[in-house]
Every structure is written in C-alpha cells, then in structure tokens.
Prior knowledge:
InterPro entries: Glycosyltransferase_grp1. This is Glycosyl transferase RfaG. By secondary structure, the protein is an alpha/beta fold. The protein has 2 domains: 1-39, no CATH class; 50-100, no CATH class. The protein contains 4 helices and 5 strands; from the N terminus they run βαβαβαβαβ. The strands form 2 sheets. A 3-stranded parallel sheet has the order 3-4-5, covered by helices on one side. The chain is globular, with a radius of gyration of 14 Å.
Amino acid sequence: MDDSFCWLIVGSGSPELREHLQYQIDSMGMHDDVFIADNVFPAAPVYRVASLVVLPSENESFGMVLAEASAFSVPVVATQIGGIPEVIQNNQTGTLFTSR
C-alpha cells in the first residue's frame, strides 16, 4: 500500500472482535497499513490528520463521530441508517450508502 496512506480503526469493540480484525489484517499482510485503537480522547488530533472518516454502522442512533468529522471538514462515508441521515446529507455533506 502507499506509504502515505494508512487505515486507523477507532472504537471499543469486544476483545473477540478486535482479535478477529487483527487476524484479518495480518492474514492480508496489511499489519503496516491498518492500525486499531481504542476510543481516542481527545479526538481532535485524529481528525486533524484524517483524510476520510468511514462509519459502516449497522445500528447508529446519531453518529456523533460524523458531526465531529464535519466540524473538522473531514469528508465522510457512512451507512444510511438510524440518525445518520440527520447528520449527513447524501452527496452534499458526505456520502451515504445502504447496508447489506
């Protein structure tokens, strides 16, 4: 992968989920390109260097991360579910997609 690009997965999922994600990352040889972090506070330093925020939620009541990303002018891609369309207007303030 391009040395100037990496993925940062942020959140406090279960240890099993984190282990599964790390296994997938390692099995694809992406351990130098994909990093997993627990919740980050303060989040501002992450948004300042982010090129894109992706929120592929299957259940999301509001999507605070999207409001925060928008405040830092970071483009967003998110599922069109729950309260997300109240925060992001498709093709105007971000890109929304339907989940499978």
